[in-house]
């Protein structure tokens, strides 16, 4: 009989910034010989499978199986930031029932293609805000490991939401004159985190459904048998130590992009890796970058969910033009509320502009590593932040929502790998920040970016902290199996 390998069910939260790291972890585990049932919502499932060469990917990873469940929303319902609370709610009701049924059928081995080599799942790895998996895991007696796709620091802040309410730090009010005052009730962050830097959820009134949702998620997350984070020891050591007060097992395995690369080194190249990209990349920007001088271009991207006004876009545009630096800018069709990019002046959208190049979606990881790119103007999503740190690229942060304001504070005041431009984007500020960054006016930033890039690479190499932690995770899952 063929050797039986551990079978793990993986459940991401269905948006770009959460699916991508989960998929990278799945590929690492699959490479280690695990069987993976990767469960997307139907909506994300169709997009992902449309974006990869499924047959060559699956032939590379024969232990990989994509499954899907409904998210409970009608097909035409928007699944963007404006309706995120509906998505949370419906997944945790309808999605939960479907996920439970799916796990039951996998436990009975009904949905397994090849019963010779696949066996019932031994554990679930679920996104930290998919607590439905914890409920199902408790009921069906199957261990759940939670994967919070934010930084350790932001994860730690979310664990203090209740304390922040008790200390009346929530709601953070716009125009509050104490907005620059320090928040002193979160250990390790007493001297650095200001009210201004708290996650956007902290602006909610205490009875707001979104705040209640996150309070419930973080409380259920604590019942998981371990915590996985896409970060590395040398970046967030003091906070990781604090998280050990909640979990006996904390697996920091980032940067996942680099870990995946190092784990697959020496294996035959994957014909069609699943990048987790939910949009089509415009690769023409690489040819444009190839024509630019080394370290001359500032790359501008606000991730996959942030939306901004036409006026804000114009301020960025003038700031970039006035800085005199060439730029590569990702303007998604849904980035601008109102008219969308159609309402923007032709000069902004014109892709052949000599001073800049605009695409609707870039091959970001490749762009960040391109020798022509010298800086990154970012919304401070965690994936973007970590991808930038990994290649030693300094950042200008313009955070808006969820975890981004915490990340940007860490970038500017803890790790010193960039500048924080939060809460303002007038053209003169943009121009000034771009000049400071691109002309290397801040020596400390140059030193720190190199230092952390080296530490990030070291962490995923043999003997490094993330390398050891992924081995530990693999070993722990194997021990559940046996
Ligand atoms: C969301 C939240 O906004 C973010 O704050 C949270 O940390 C994760 O979930 P998103 O806005 O998409 O994520 O930002 P980010 O985490 O940076 O992830 C974006 C991903 O898309 C990155 O991996 C990036 O490489 C990729 N990307 C982005 C592209 O491949 N091309 C692009 O043009 C833009």
From TrEMBL:
Tell me what this protein is called: Glycosyltransferase
Q: EC number(s)? A: 2.4.1.-
Organism in which the protein naturally occurs: Anisodus acutangulus
Per UniProt, the enzyme's principal EC class comes to transferase
> What keywords were assigned to this record?
Coiled coil, Glycosyltransferase, Transferase
Q: Which SUPFAM superfamilies match?
A: UDP-Glycosyltransferase/glycogen phosphorylase
Q: In its keyword annotation, does this UniProt entry include Transferase?
A: yes
Q: Which InterPro entries match?
A: UDP_glucos_trans, UDP_glycos_trans_CS
Parts forming coiled coils = 438-482
Q: Which family does it belong to?
A: Belongs to the UDP-glycosyltransferase family.
